[in-house]
Amino acid sequence: MFELLTTMVERLGIIVTIAFILTRFKFFRDMTYQEQLKRSQQYTAILFFGFFGIIGTYTGLSLSTESLHFHRWASNLAADEAIANSRVIGVVIAGLLGGYKVGIGAGLIAGIHRFTLGGFTAIACGLASIIAGILAGYFHKRNHHIKLKSAFFMGALAETIQMLIILLLSRPFEQAWTLVEIIGFPMIIANGLGCALFLLVIRNVVQEEEKVVAVQAQKIFRIADQTLAHLRDGINPKSAHAVCRILHNEIKASAVSMTNLTDILAHVGLGDDHHRAESPIQTQITLDAIHKGKMIVANQESIQCRVKGCPLGAAIIEPLKVRDKTIGTLKFYFRSEKAITNVDVELISGLSRIISNQLEIVEAERSYQLAKEAEIMALQAQISPHFLFNTLNTIVSLIRIDQTKARKLLVSLSHFLRQNLTVTTHNMGTLEQEIKHTKAYLSIEEARFIDRLEVIYDIDETVLLKSLPPLTLQPIVENAIKHGFKDKENNCIIKISIKRQEEHIQIKVEDNGQGMSEERVQQIGTALVQSEKGTGLALYNVNRRLIMTFGEEAALAIKSEAQIGTEVSFLIPYKKEVI
Question: What is the pLDDT of residue 547?
């Protein structure tokens, strides 16, 4: 008994070899990763595992129940002979990995073959093979990710059932009992171990491949992180050179090159003496990749470099695309075609997609920035007519009673409009320009209020060169005069303060006007409000531009109390300069 067990365990080396070979086949990888196989994949698996079961039969030892001796066999069995074999391993693995259909199919092939060999256990062993496939398929449905102990249990269970079927169906019973007594325990243990060993080999190979994939993924993410900063301005000779240098360090290629549609933008590595940056594309194969928009793997003959003795004997040329339109190529050169592996091809394909995605994101950011700038310009254009309407009304009124003052106001207005038009052509201005602009406005408004308006300035001169969106301060001051002092006859006071507060600059406009209700304070600056007093357009536009430029922390903060006054303030960063 123990001699047979030792012999069968030794022959499990065949199982290990077959398990390793299996991992090289695509259909087997599909069985490992997919819950449901296609019909063609199922047929392939049935044939393979059925053949595996047949191999398990032929590698067994025949036992004569008369002489009780084991020996190799090469033809049909005698009437008193049976086979101690590992046939059940192929059938069980088929069911565990492929499901009951694959298990039954492999069991039928292995079982029918065993039946044709004869012997007094032919029917019992053939039937047991089919039942083993059914049982293993049942466990596949319940547990797709099979554990080693489950595989051992299934192999041992399938062999135990086979021993029981032999006792039930094989005759004479005395021979069946003798056979089971001798081969039962060794076959149960050996085939259980065989199933677990088979699964262990497969699992280790698959895990190693998963580790390789994980390492490649980490490398791709690392490269993506390093290249992103250089691609923020798109592809140009400077950014392309930086990206190619990163890729050359990470991917062990002989050289890395990047092109646009017409020129070589950068070339790092061998051959840089004649594959020069900022020169026209030299090889037809690169132009073909651009035209076709597909990866091309080229050998030395198809590269057709113009310089004899070029050390670059093979290349992988991958198009770079933005919105499915080819904008250039990424090229990896090798010394020979043999140096290119499937891993290299997959890695380079993934890298080109990531770089293409980065370029597409950069273009999207540019489009967003242009739209943002266009919106800011549109908001600025809305403010100018608002102020002009009020100013012209004031001048019209003064023409009737004081032509001299009206002329002075027209001169002031011309200066104001000139400055107003200048700042609306820029996205950013300085605090100093904002103060000058606001003072020009107030000189016009003071004429209207005739000694009723007092302006107090509290300004930190050290922060006046800091940037902010133009036409930000003047609309707030205009809003205070227009709404805060609407019904106030005298003692109209506006205080404008600009102070640094650690990492921010606070700009504040205070008035002692009629104030607002808490409900209206919550609405002003965040939405247009329809009322008899106005829509809040000026503060709404200012708030929008501040948030779009500096973020939510720059939003207007409004405090107001009825009959006491209103305070409008906002923060801009002190260190951060927006260009």
Answer: 87
